[in-house]
Design goal:
heterotrimer; A alpha+beta (375); B mainly alpha (271); C mainly alpha (291); A: 375 residues; alpha+beta; Rossmann fold; OB fold (Dihydrolipoamide Acetyltransferase, E2P); 2 domains; six-stranded mixed sheet; 23% helix; disordered N terminus; B: 271 residues; mainly alpha
Chain lengths: 375, 271, 291
């Protein structure tokens, strides 16, 4: 990969320019509602960045602002070092894959793919070259003469991808492209899209509400909530050090356990329980987070284990998910194999050292002192 | 794709120009009807308004009777249409009877060959039935509306069959099912059809002209025509007033319920 | 549901509508053909079978040919004009232009007015010298014209009136079709840099083809069916210059009381409508994009 003097513009592995995207304090307001509130982020050239979040968090709007389909109420958007905030979509050098694919129903697959190339009056040889390349990359051979209505969901998706690829723009934007596909197809397409991005080396901004997609595909995950950026980090970092309790619960399956803490003479204990203390110091106003995989059942000989009462047990085959009550809080953990405690049985739970996260109860923000370390 | 900037201004101007041009005839008629005869050609904004033209028109011909006739006619036609069309559409949508496809094709024929063009024969039929110069005679050819059957059949077909089965489990007969399940679900389509039907029959002219001879049966459109061309000298203010009277109910209805009107016609047109 | 039950119930439900349809559409259509092969019954003289004689009379009747020619010209102008205007209006109303409500109302209002009322209003417009049209043309330097009283202008005058009445009605169908287009299509096209004209030409117009076909069929049927304004304004004159086929049928049947000949004329009308139906059926299979 050649890198030019200007480090922001580089040549992607696929042979065309790739660009960095920068958002500076971008907001979008519609009357009373603010969909995007002062979002600033940087998408490095050639990287795969996922905008993740629940519905209504502003991720799609942010994407559309980058695309130019919506005009920003304030802030700046830079692509490739250029201020594109006032430019129309076609002048920004971006291509987009829509959630509904947006294929033209009356055109064949081939015509759909080269639509933009025709608009820009590329020569026929160039059009055919690019079409062939996209067809080969996406396995669309044999489908070129069909109309979109004659294709399956997965095939339509690939055609939409094809249209984005032939544009050969440095930036590609995708708005929940896999949400209309069934689970198995989604898995396949995840891998394909990731491979494609690596192969072509383009800058990809991908919007989804599915944290599995984010974790498996992204170089960086931008978690959004209420129009703001909750956390902007690599998947590993978000997983190991979530910046807020919201991030902690959003990422990871099953979700992280959050337990309110209380003061006790020995330190911070789970609220409503008698100990042992999980942390030294204050407990009130703090929330402890621990992932289910970091808890295990132990016997009476183990020191420092929490006393718990089993509420329910779900046998999944490889392991059993136990929901237990500790004090006033509820914790879930996974026990290997089949464990069948009677409901109400008392068990003891040990917390793996170094696996605790601590958050402020009121703001949700991470309080450092939580000893989790990134792997 | 929306236009931006200067293009948008240009387009807005063009659209408005056409809009103004389009409303001009009606605006002109309204002006003439509401102002005394002297102001016909003079468009002074402060000219006095008057209802005198309407009063005179009302008394110059039996418009009250014409109004009654038209209202009764439209109500009768629509009433019968709703029943016939519902039953027929239900049959086509849910019953697999012998000759169904052929029968439906024959129904569709009426979409192309309307009673309006078969005036010669239909008049003969009315004569044999003794229905010349009656409201029933005017309405009869239109009561089995192919358009309505087509529309409702389409709508009934979208009702999920599970509802049928659920109703049958509850012990519903076919007719009860029709009344309790299908008809309520098709309400918007009924409204749409109703508006289209009333518009059509309120404004129908040629057939009623042929069928009616007397004031007792004559609808507004025919009455207006006779009134406008009576040998009484051309009094435009009077004619405009009479014309507005004739169009008033639909016009006012439209202006008040614009969205519903347009939505209805749209719904009726989505074939 | 057993087959017997389905048959019995199905036909019972259909019966009332079927009877009326048969009585006022199918039977008259066939009867028209039958009566066109006979003379007109007069008083005590019943109709006699005369084969194709009525048709011979028709072919030699200059008024018939004038009416056919008029119908042809009439369709030739009013149909494209109304369809193009309808599409334009729908595109404009569909955008968020200022005063959209006014535009929609203004374009659609002629549809809710009776054609008879429209005819009277336009009669007023067409009055030589005082009518608004002449007032306007006087500004442009032309003298007074007897729009409805001259052979060369009467059909044109009627055509303008018809377009005014019909365009708004067809606009509705285009509006319905436009509203069903997913907005992401225009966004995708915008991203690719397509201009509005390109998008219209390559995407919207083809996707509106089914609607255009539907509107065309309706417009053609209407051009045969609507003669109220002729009855009201010109009575086919001057000198049959504005006679349309259905109007001529009306005159022959109800002014001259020559029902035999009128039947023959009606057959021509029915034949053209049948041709239209066939054409629509075949065209639909081939040209129009099916979603």
């Amino acid at each position: 990969m050649q890198v030019s003097c200007d480090a922001r513009i580089s040549r992607g592995a696929g042979g065309f320019d790739v660009s960095e995207i920068v958002l500076e304090g971008v907001s979008k307001r519609w009357g009373e509602t603010t969909a995007v509130d002062g979002v600033s982020l940087r998408v490095p050239a050639g990287s795969f960045v996922v905008l993740l979040g629940p519905s209504g968090c502003g991720k799609s709007t942010t994407l559309r602002l980058v695309a130019g389909l919506e005009a920003a109420s304030s802030g700046r958007i830079l692509i490739d070092g250029r201020d594109v905030t006032a430019l129309p979509p076609s002048a920004r050098g971006v291509s987009m894959v829509f959630q509904s694919y947006a294929l033209f129903p009356h055109l064949s697959v081939a015509e759909n793919i080269v639509f933009g190339l025709r608009v820009r009056r590329l020569s026929r040889e160039e059009r055919e070259r690019r079409l062939e390349r996209a067809t080969a990359l996406l396995g669309l051979g044999g489908l070129l003469e069909r109309k979109p209505s004659q294709l399956s969901g997965g095939q339509q998706q690939r055609v939409a991808l094809g249209r984005a690829i032939v544009a050969e723009t440095p930036v590609c934007l995708m708005d929940e492209p896999l949400s209309n596909l069934d689970a198995q197809l989604r898995q396949e397409m995840r891998r394909e899209i990731r491979a494609l991005q690596r192969q072509l080396g383009i800058t990809l901004v991908y919007v989804t509400h599915d944290q599995v997609e984010a974790m498996t595909m992204a170089d960086r995950v931008v978690l959004m909530r209420g129009g703001r950026v909750e956390q902007d980090a690599s998947p590993a970092e978000i997983y190991a050090r979530p910046a807020t309790s919201f991030a902690a619960r959003f990422i990871g399956t099953p979700p992280m356990n959050l337990a309110r803490l209380a003061d006790s003479p020995a330190g911070a204990v789970v609220r409503g329980s008698a100990g042992p203390a999980l942390l030294p110091g204050r407990g009130d106003g703090l929330v402890a987070g621990v992932r289910p995989e970091s808890l295990r059942l132990v016997d009476a000989t183990h020191h420092g284990a929490l006393e718990a009462e089993v509420l329910s047990a779900e046998y999944l085959g490889a392991d059993t998910v136990l929901a237990c009550r500790v004090g006033e809080e509820q914790l879930s953990l996974r026990a290997p194999g089949q464990v069948t405690p009677a409901p109400g049985a008392r068990v003891r739970i040990a917390v793996e050292p170094g696996s605790l996260h601590v958050f402020d109860a009121a703001s949700g923000r991470r309080v450092d002192g939580g000893a989790a370390t990134a792997p | 794709m929306e236009s931006r900037g200067f293009d948008r201004v240009l387009e807005t101007c063009a659209a408005w120009l056409l809009g103004i041009l389009w409303i001009l005839p009606l605006a002109f008629a309204v002006w003439t009807a509401f102002h005394p005869a002297e102001y016909q050609a003079r468009f002074e904004p402060l000219a006095p308004l008057t209802l005198e033209n309407f009063a005179r028109a009302w008394h110059a011909a039996p418009f009250a009777r014409y109004f009654l006739n038209t209202t009764l006619l439209c109500a009768m036609i629509l009433g019968v249409q709703l029943v016939l069309v519902t039953l027929a559409a239900y049959a086509f949508a849910r019953f697999e009877f012998f000759g169904r496809e052929v029968a439906f094709s024959l129904v569709l024929v009426q979409l192309m060959i309307m009673p309006d063009v078969l005036i010669v024969e239909n008049y003969q039929t009315l004569r044999k039935l003794g229905l010349v110069d009656t409201l029933l005679g005017i309405g009869l050819p239109y009561m089995a509306s192919a358009f309505g059957i087509f529309l409702l059949r389409q709508t009934f077909k979208t009702v999920p069959r599970e509802l049928d089965e659920a109703a049958r489990v509850e012990g519903c007969s076919f007719l009860m099912m029709l009344w309790k399940v299908y008809v309520p679900l098709a309400k918007p389509v009924y409204v749409a059809f109703g508006l289209v039907s009333v518009s059509y029959h309120w404004n129908n002219f040629l057939w009623p002209l042929i069928v009616t001879n007397s004031v007792e049966t004559r609808p507004l459109t025919v009455g207006l025509q006779i009134f406008s061309h009576a040998d009484q000298g051309i009094d435009w203010a009077l004619i405009c007033a009479a014309t507005l009277l004739t169009s008033a109910p639909l016009l006012v209805g439209f202006l008040l319920f614009q969205r519903q009107f347009v939505q209805s016609f749209i719904r009726a047109g989505i074939r | 549901m057993t087959r017997l039950s389905a048959n019995v119930h199905g036909w019972l439900l259909l019966l009332p509508a079927a009877v009326l349809l048969a009585a006022f559409t199918h039977v008259p259509a066939v009867a028209t053909f039958w009566h066109s092969l006979h003379t007109t019954p007069k008083g005590n003289r019943p109709a006699r079978f005369v084969g194709l004689r009525q048709y011979e009379t028709m072919v030699q009747d200059p008024v018939f040919w004038q009416a056919m020619w008029n119908n042809f010209l009439y369709a030739l102008f009013t149909i494209p004009a109304s369809v193009v205007l309808a599409m334009l209006m729908a595109l404009w109303v569909n955008q968020r232009l200022a005063g959209r409500g006014f535009l929609r109302m203004s374009y659609f209002v002629p549809t809710v007015l009776p054609l008879i009322a429209v005819a009277n209003i336009w009669l007023f417009f067409y009055v030589p010298d005082y009518g608004l049209v002449d007032v306007f043309t006087r500004v442009l330097g032309f003298g007074p014209t007897n729009w409805l009283g001259q052979r060369d202008t009467v059909l044109g005058a009627l055509m303008v009136m018809t377009v005014w009445k019909e365009a708004g009605f067809f606009m509705i169908f285009y509006l319905a079709a436009l509203q069903q287009l997913p907005p992401s299509l225009s966004e995708a096209a915008a991203l690719e840099g397509a201009s509005r004209w390109y998008f219209f030409r390559r995407v919207i117009f083809p996707l509106l083809m089914p609607t255009t076909l539907f509107v065309l069929v309706n417009a053609i049927i209407n051009s045969f069916r609507l003669v109220d304004h002729i009855v009201a304004l010109t009575k086919g004159g001057p000198d049959n210059a504005s006679a349309l086929l259905l109007f001529y049928i009306f005159e022959v049947a109800f002014k001259f009381w020559d029902t035999g000949y009128a039947s023959a004329l009606t057959m021509v009308l029915l034949a053209m409508l049948a041709l239209l139906a066939l054409g629509q059926y075949f065209f639909l299979e081939k040209r129009v994009h099916y979603r």
